[in-house]
Amino acid sequence: MRIERVTDGGKCTLALHGRLDTATAPMLQDAMAAVFGEAQQVELDFANTEYISSAGLRVLLVGQKTAQAKGAAMTLTGVSEEIMEVLEMTGFTNILTIV
Predict the structure, then answer these.
(1) What angle do CA 32, 34, 35 make, to 5 degrees?
(2) In this predicted model, what pLDDT tens digit does every residue of 65-75 receive, in sequence order?
């Protein structure tokens, strides 16, 4: 996986490219930890993400909890039908803000 980071004022976008799985989830967790230290709004762009595993879901949950604890916002954009299906089946659509 490759993560592109774009910061614009208090908003930071992390564009994910590839698979979010056991091998790559720690990369996203590290990137989000750094971003929540400086941004009030974090956007995760899933337009180029082809797969998400349970490890990826766990990182999203940690990110959402971190955002709430810091009074920040985390949104997911560009979510494909396949990944949206996983998010719906696991109940994550009720937890996450998906645009």
Answers:
(1) 65
(2) 999 999 999 99
DSSP 42-56: EEEEEEEEEEE-HHH
End-to-end CA distance of the chain: 22
Residue 64, token pair as written in the block: 């959402």
Q: Which fold has domain 2-98?
A: Transcription Regulator spoIIAA (3.30.750)
Flag whether pLDDT at 37 surpasses 90. no
Pairing mode, strands 97-98 and 73-77: parallel
48 and 18 in contact (C-beta within 8 Å)?
yes
